[in-house]
Hints:
- This protein has 75 residues and is an all-alpha fold.
- The protein has a domain at 33-75.
- The protein has helices at residues 11-27, 34-69.
- Helix 1 (11-27) runs antiparallel to helix 2 (34-69).
- The two termini are 35 Å apart.
- 0% of the residues are buried.
- The model has no long low-confidence stretch (mean pLDDT 86).
Amino acid sequence: MDQTKSILFSKTAWGAGLSLVASLSSVIGYTISPSDQAQALDLFGQLYDIADQLIVIGGSIFAIWGRIKATHKIA
Length: 75
C-alpha cells in the first residue's frame, strides 16, 4: 500500500467514527442499532461513489472544453 488518501475518504475511519458516536449516544440514553449503523455507512459509500462519478464527469467536460477553447495544437 503505497498510495495515501484523506481520512475523509476512509470507510474504516467513518465506520469507526459511527461506532464511537453510537457507543457514546447509548451513554446518554439514545440507542442506535447495528442495522442503523450499517445503513448509515452504506449511505456514505453511495454518496462517495456519486461524488467520484461527478468528479470524473466534471474532469471530462473540462478536458473537452479546454480542447475546444485551445489556441495551440497538441505536439
